[in-house]
Amino acid sequence: MSPPVLRLVPRCCVLSGLRVGPEDVSAFAAALHRPPRDLESLLGLRFTGSVRAVPEGRIVLAGEPLLEVTPLLEVTAPLPQAQLAETYVLNQVNHQTLIASKAEHPVVDFSLRRTHGPQAGFQAARLGAMTGFAGTSNVAAATALGLPAVGTMAHSYVEAFEGEEEAFHAFARPHPGPVTFLVDTYDTEEGVRVAARVLRDPDRGPGCAVRLDSGDPGALAVRTRSLLDEAGLADVRITVSGGLDEYAVDDLVRSGAPVDVYAVGTRVGVSADAPYLDSVYKMVEYEGRPVMKLSSAKVTAPGRKQVFRRPGDADVIGLADEPPPRNSEPLLETVMRHGQRTGSRPALRECRERFTADLAALPSAARRIRAPVPPRATVSEQLGTLTERVRRRIAERTDSSAARRAVSTRRAASRTSGPG
């Protein structure tokens, strides 16, 4: 079973700016080894369609393929435009939803060195802030998004000095605000003692910390807390990093380890335990005709849809034009019309408020870190009826075609056979 996932609106500004110019046609033709005149019909193509999506920050329900999958996004456009948008939309939806689903914990983001490129690092910082992270070490993202920039020193900085005490003094001297000392370059306990001597400076100010980046974080945090308290530094905090993910953080919290800040990087920034999200982008209606796939293990539901959320009850996946269930709210909203955005992108604070409210409304079993039990969406009667009707129509057409082929085969056989 998958945990709830967070849905993010893709960058509609890219769709609104989609234009196929002469240089694009030339590039397509070269890639396909075809003369440019074969692709001239694409010249001038732009996105003129509409997009409906779940607002950024809302939680939607994961589920099995077919009817349990909540529709996150709906693109209505001429077929060539919709198909050109497919790869980009899936790229944005899959990656950001996946990372956001990992980032539901009050920690700080240290992932930029391990994410799959600078854009992915920026997205990880933004998604972390949306889902509860207190800051990021990605200074560019912090500046662009108005997030707290956080960080410590590197082991290489400590190694550049004759000893840890010289390194800590040099690091603290030009910093007017709180500092965090990395204490495990050589021997962790000795590093804590050295840091304590430096931090006893009466001018250091509040908010300082030490950082543990290796070894058994729980045991070392207990020993570090003891050493700091003995030195009269009860206000100095402990930051832990090094291979953490939500499971390690949960274990440390449950064990009562005296950790004040969790700095997560690789395992969250690349979603190490679940490296992909298998969402799909499928046609559900063409020229007013509902369509569906019947491929093995890839069956889709026909028709334009809406998701209705009811407080304290299961979501209902229904048709876009059917009456909503009592006391429900529709999740899909129009974000693009005639190729243009219908409004500005929501502020990060607004997205975080949506996420916080949706998370609080989930059953406790769905919020568990391990073995979560997510709610399951149900299907409306109208959508179920339409699905069966389209399925029968396809089956009848397929059976009729198969029968005609069988008759043709028998006639051909009778013409080629003769007296023995």
From TrEMBL:
Molecular function via GO: glycosyltransferase activity; nicotinate phosphoribosyltransferase activity
EC category name: ligase
Pathway it works in: Cofactor biosynthesis; NAD(+) biosynthesis; nicotinate D-ribonucleotide from nicotinate: step 1/1
EC assignment: 6.3.4.21
Domain called Nicotinate phosphoribosyltransferase C-terminal: residue spans: 327-386
Stretches for region Disordered: 391-420
Name this protein carries in UniProt: Nicotinate phosphoribosyltransferase
Organism, as annotated: Streptomyces edwardsiae
